[in-house]
Amino acid sequence: MKIHNRIHTGEKPYQCSQCVKRFSQLSCLKSHEIIHTGDKPHKCPQCGNTFKRLSNLKDHKRVHTGEKPYHCIHCEESFSWSRQLKAHERTHTGEKPYQCSQCGKSFTQLGSLKIHNRIHTGEKPYQCSQCGKRCKRLSCLKSHEIIHTGDKPHKCPLCGNTFKRLSNLKEHERVHTGEKPYHCFQCEKNFSTLRQLKEHERTHTGEKPYQCSQCGRRFNRLSNLKSHEWTHRRKATSLICVEIVPHQAS
């Protein structure tokens, strides 16, 4: 009761001797002090990884057990950690609390903002060991590396199609189930994939992030840009033919 009352009174009687930060509970102070000592007293019996807090070890153990106790009430996906669930729920609510200071674009996850910032900084910290190509994201590097191996380890149990990525298989399975878990809050249309939802949302916002390098025209979908670029290639081919034919005739 005394500890609870401190929520209302704001009392924080426990002070860190290293940085003077104060806490309402002794247990919180003890957890905080580990930051200064660097101790990691909690060891995973499965893989030997060590952690500063017992709660972190308990979270980590789910890597080995596969336990996913956190469930999304919107689409029934499950997650190992509460932070994953919170980040996922924003795909349904549309909340984007993390904003880029450079261009104003907002994101559902802090990690997504950090990755986005690399567009402005040009940072590409992940390099392919096969061809030297550099990537902004680790996930992009992993996807790229499959080009060299050609592996498609993820197989659909219903039709036998194989996929390079598990995420692609999960998206494909919705072709069979008809599931459309992603909802537009502007017009209430539903979509099978987050990518489809994002593309659709641009019809409401007017955003056109894909620009033609030849003429500057912009598009709301990458597929539309690719189709448009083909018109330039076709025109270029026609010009080459016009130049060649008179030359041959002479």
- The beta-strand count equals 16
* Element-level helix/strand string: HEEHEEHEEHEEHEEHEEHEEHEEH
Computed structural class: alpha+beta
CATH 4th-level superfamily of the largest domain: Classic Zinc Finger
Number of helical segments? 9
Low-confidence stretches: none
Helix coverage percent = 40-55%
Main sheet specs: 2 strands, antiparallel
Number of domains: 3
**From the coordinates shown, what is the CATH architecture of the largest domain?**
2-Layer Sandwich
Mean pLDDT: 86
Shape: extended
Q: What percentage of the residues does DSSP assign to strands (E)?
A: 5-15%
What is the CATH class of the largest domain? Alpha Beta
Could you tell me the CATH topology label of the largest domain.
Double Stranded RNA Binding Domain
Topology:
Layout: H1 2-9, E1 14-15, E2 22-23, H2 26-37, E3 42-43, E4 50-51, H3 54-65, E5 70-71, E6 78-79, H4 82-93, E7 98-99, E8 106-107, H5 110-121, E9 126-127, E10 134-135, H6 138-149, E11 154-155, E12 162-163, H7 166-177, E13 182-183, E14 190-191, H8 194-205, E15 210-211, E16 218-219, H9 222-249
Antiparallel strand pairs: 1-2, 3-4, 5-6, 7-8, 9-10, 11-12, 13-14, 15-16
